Every structure is written in structure tokens, then in C-alpha cells.
Amino acid sequence: MIDRQRTRATVLHADADSFFAAVEQRDKPSLRGKPVLVGGTGPRGVVSTASYEARQAGARSAMPMSRARRLAPAAAVLFPRFEAYSAYSRAIMTELATLSPLVEQLSIDEAFVDLEEGPFADDPTTAASAVRARIRTLTGLAVSVGIGRTKLVAKLASDAAKPDGLLLVEPADEDAFLLPLPVRAVPGIGPATAAALERLDARTVADLRRQPLDMLTMTVGESSGTNLYRLARGIDPRPVSPGAERKSVGAERTFAADIFGHDAISAAVDAVTDEALRRLTSHGGGARTIVAKVRFADFTTLTRSVTLAQPSADPAELRAAAHRAAIAAGLTDSVRLLGVSFHNLSAHAQLTLPWDAPDEVTPEPLDLPAEDPTQSRPLTEDNARPGLDIEHPTFGRGWVVHVRGREATVRFESVGTPPARSRVLDLDADPILLVPPLVALEPF
Description:
With 444 residues, the protein is of the alpha+beta class. It contains 13 helices and 18 strands. Mean pLDDT is 86; it is low at 348-373.
């Protein structure tokens, strides 16, 4: 294998801090500096993004919304507005492209930049500081940046720089930076792999580096073991690839003992789907095709898929589809392995998280109406979601707090206005339009 390792720190990783929640705080002045949770609030609702104020109370991404609300009872809970997030994402990526022609967008709020191919390879810190300042001026958002010799180091450096920081790790300083980190900090090491490494007493990257290659491959498999062996030594020759586009995300689990029976298998499908959903959330957007992989005790392996009418990021809808796909694969025998993966990924999925669904095992998602979401329409109890944009002929633009019957609680404020108090209006006497987000990218 040819070593294409760089000799200087010219890989930049940029990651917008608490992106969805930060956009909501920018667009809603009354929420600035206050805890915000973006996601669904039904019985199986999941937090997509928690603001740093909410994280201080213990809330975090991928946590059940019910638990997050108990931890942060003062938090505003908002329905995601992907149209707004996509607009801010495009602005961020456009600024990053001024640094180099090689920008690899990983998700809606995250990208690698190859500074070696631009004019800033000799002074990456100044370039990164300037682009962070321009992004903040244009969008009002904080972007944390890490710079290193490899993608691995750059990614870990941006994680260490959060919130709102910049960290350059020179090649000579890589070991001092990497070795003390917990193994869970390494991309690709999830709970199951970490538990397996724990049995080897490998709790830090330094511990991981001490493991022989054959021990790692026996413990976590040939491919994963070889990859971890390299990463623990800072070997990561992956280039920044602008054309790279993730085709799928997913998770699978091999059970220590075969499982059987409807309840046990159903619970296992839920657990694997939840892990796949966390990865989909990290990727951003949603998926249209859901694939279940089932390996039986005799090692027979079947895959079955369910394709939705449109891309979705609704955990309840995706979880229900995963169950349908698993059932289609046949679950009458003992199961050795279960996998769930999401395909036909889209950054602009319709997210239909139930925010007031009945308490039942598999709630029906309360979808937004089938009308064109880019068109204005009257606000009603059926199409209202907390945080969506509205407009009133007298009071101007604002957002939905909640709607009960024909009584709407709203706040009339936007990026350039002072914070507003909640106002209650009768929708019969004072009709309000539900409108697309108005994204004003201007000095903040």
C-alpha cells in the first residue's frame, strides 16, 4: 500500500454548532440564549438537535423527546424546518468553497476542505479564522473548525474545539492530541465496538495502539480491526473527495445467542433501527427506502425493502417501515443477525415527527398536508407545528407556538426584530397564513 500521508496540516473539518437549534435561535429572537429542542414530541419522538443551553440540562441529540423535556422543562420544542436549514447550509458551503476547490460535504452542516489545493496551505489558521468570521457575519451561526494532517485528526480537532472554536493539530503534535482520547471519540466506534474493546482494556487511543493487529481483527472483525489498527496510529490516507455522496446509512447487530419469538425480535428490530436512525440524523435529511437484513441460525441471509412515497426523516414512519421489511424477510426461525439500513437518501426529506400523537405503540404520523410546502396556506390545527413560519396582514411574520381548535398562540418576530411576546388570536376573526421560511442572509 502506497503511503499518501500528508506532511503538513492542510485538511480542514468544519462543523456548525448545534445547527438546527442555532438556526431556530437566529430566526426567533425570543429564543436566543434559551434552551431549544428540535425534533418530535410524540411518544416516540426523538431529539434531532439540542441547543447548548438545553445540553447543559442533560438533553442531547437522539434522546427520546419525552426524556429531554423532563431534563429541560423550560426548553422550546420546535418542529424542524429543513427548507431554512438547507438555505443556511448552502451559505456555509459557499464560504468554505472560497478556501479550496476541494470541499467534501458530509451532511447538511459538516464538510472537509483540502487546503493543499487552495491558496491558504501555508497559513491555514488565518484562513480558517477568516472564513468562520464571514460565516458568522452572514448567517449569525458559529462553526467549529479543526485542522490536521488527516481527516481523522481534523474531525477530532473540530470536536475538541466545540463550541465555536478553532484547533490546529500540527503533525508533530498528533500523538499528544490523539493518545489521551477515549476510544469512543474515534469515528466508527459505537457502543458495541467500545464494549468489545473494553474487554481488551482498550479505553483510550493509547490503549488501542498497544493492541496487536491479530487481536483487534479477532475481536471486532477483519475489516474493522484493520481500520482501527491504522487509525490508532494516525494512518488515514483518505483524500477530500468533493464527489463523494453517501448512498446509505444503517446498523446491524449480531447476537451473542440466537433470538426467537415475536416480542424479542420486535424489540431487537427497534434497537437496531434506533442506531440506524442516529446515524441518519448525523448524516442529515431522510430516506425513501428502508432495507431489513435478517440472518437466521443456519446462516441463511435474506434482505427485504420497503419504499416510501417520498423521502422521510420521521423516526416513527421509518421505524414502522423497518418492521414491515423485517416481517417480509420472515421471522419464524431463530435469528442470528438483524440489520436495518436507509437508502435513497435526501437532504430535503419531509420530516413528519408527531408532536401531539396519541400514546400508542406505533402512532400514526401526523403528516403535514399534501399541498406544496413552498406555497402559503391558512393556518389550522391540522397543519400547525410549533416553530413553523406564519404571516399576518397586520402583524407581519412570526412563528407558531401552538394551535388548539381555532385559537392560535403565536409570536410575531423574525431575524431583524426585537423579541416578541406570545399573542393569542382567534383564527376565525384573524386568519393567519402558514408560509415558507424567509431566509435573510445578511450581516448579523
